[in-house]
Amino acid sequence: MTDGHDAVGVALRNALHGTGAHVDTGTIFAGLGWKQAGVRPAGAPHSVYEILTRMLYWNEWVVQWLGGGKPPVPKHASGSWPGKVSAANRQKWSQAVRRFGAGLKEFDRAARGADVLSRSRSRASTSARTRWNRRMNVPTTFPSLRTMGHQR
Length: 152
Fold this sequence. Notes:
Blueprint: H1 4-16, H2 34-37, H3 48-66, H4 90-113, H5 116-120, H6 123-136, H7 138-141, H8 144-147
Helix pairs in contact: 1-4, 3-4
């Protein structure tokens, strides 16, 4: 039987590895060509390549955070959309996909050894939560969050 701390880590890992209702994150780019990944579909705000670079950014951020680091939180959402619309060539696309796969393995290792619940209450997390709460005026806009324990 697992306690709440283990359960959160297990749930995170399961979500990334296709357990339950989730798709195996490690295979989502399989068979997608670099040119196709670099095109923004009509009406879509981002290309697949842009989404991949954002996933790389946040995966690396979380791995650092789970390891006890205090990575900076971007002041604006645009700060977490690094990169260009498309990879420069097939090799750059393949490198990004391999980096993503390696990052998932790093995440898995980090999540196994981390007390995610304790880390979520860390100072870095609290400051990010506080900035978000101020921007969103959480007590006024979302009063139920205070009773759910999200307001600290």
